[in-house]
Input
Amino acid sequence: MVNRLTALYSNLSARSKTLLLGLVIPVTMMCGIYASVWLISRDPSPEESVVTQQPTGSALGEEDVQTEESPVETRTVAQVISITDGDTIRIMYEGESTPVRLIGIDTPETESSPDPVECFGEEAKRKMEELLSGQEVFYEFDETQGEQDKYGRLLLYLWRTSDDLFINEHMVKEGYAHEYTYNTPYRYQSQFQRAENIASSESRGLWGDVCGCVKDAEKGRTCVACNTAQVTYTNWDCSEYMKEVEDVSCTSGCAAAQPAPVTTPAPEQICCKYCTTGQACGDSCISKSYTCHKPPGCACNAY
Output
């Protein structure tokens, strides 16, 4: 085909060749201009490009935990002020230090709670301190949960700004928190439930052997001194510790008890004569104006 076109072109006169080139060159230029305009119309200008920051499922890493899509929205940054426990912190919100309860998780109670201390509560608190102390976070509300709980705490999802780590999910996935649904399903519920299944199947954190025993349960006691016993207690992880306590049943080494002094009751006085107008004197009654010089006898004063 190319050879035939070449032969035809060579047989044209010089005038014909000039006319042909005059037609081909403008047509080629018009095609190039049209293609450039079409390409430009397909690419948005820099001013029209929008980069939307999307919450990620973060640090899970496992392929079987997939991040769920969240609504596209702008996330706001806040400074973390303090850590209360494994599921509650304080952030700077609208110019004030404000308590925050993380949505979808529940960690064991610590000494900061009015409820009894639970196994792995302190560990969960220390983990939250490790993750967020001195950090900034993105926060996000969930319209299905409302903005605050009955205690006035903000209900939020949190991401660490330094690496976009999804804190709520991370605490569940690492075994520091249980997945927790309060009345109404929340946005990331299935995602957190999958994270909990992973933690449970791999015996991470509170799913391991750390909570196999009752804290401070007495396992045994031995008397070591007078009124003193050494008691063995268990920790949450079934390890043991000992402490000396007072025990009055431990009498070994105690000094012998001193006998109580014996007191002799006064002999009962038997009267043979009562003095109703005078005073007793020996076995007689005499006037009150006299002095009795006789030894005690059986007369008794009646007054």
In short: Residues 212-255 form one domain. Residues 234 and 284 are 82 Å apart (CA to CA).
